[in-house]
Amino acid sequence: MGDPLYILAILAMAAVVIVLVIGLGGFGKGGAFNHKYGNKMMRLRLLFQFIAVVLVAAYVYLRNQGG
């Protein structure tokens, strides 16, 4: 639990959820926020999602290697 890579992976997954909720909320509400930031929020979600997947894969790989 105290592994820094594990903590980073959890934080990255939390960032994905936060950006997804903000993006979906803006989409549902519509208006100026969605018009201005909707596409940017979904791109940011994809970036955070990629980072989270890389961190989880690195954690699993290193854990199986005994590192």
Number of strands: 0
Low-confidence stretches: none
Q: With helices defined by DSSP (H or I, 4 residues minimum), what is the helix count?
A: 2
Give the C-alpha Rg. Answer: 15 Å
Strand content: under 5%
Question: What is the CA–CA distance across the termini?
Answer: 14 Å
| Major β-sheet profile | none
Give the overall shape, derived from the CA principal axes: elongated
The whole-number mean of residue pLDDT values reads 92
Question: Would you tell me the structural class of the helices and strands?
Answer: mainly alpha
**Overall number of domains:** 1
Percentage of residues assigned to helices: over 70%
- What order do the SSEs take from the amino end to the carboxyl end, as H and E? HH
Polypeptide structure, described:
By secondary structure, the chain is mostly helical. The chain has one domain (4-65). Helices cover 91% and strands 0% of the residues. The chain has helices spanning 4-29, 31-65. The longest helix has 35 residues, at 31-65. The mean pLDDT is 92.
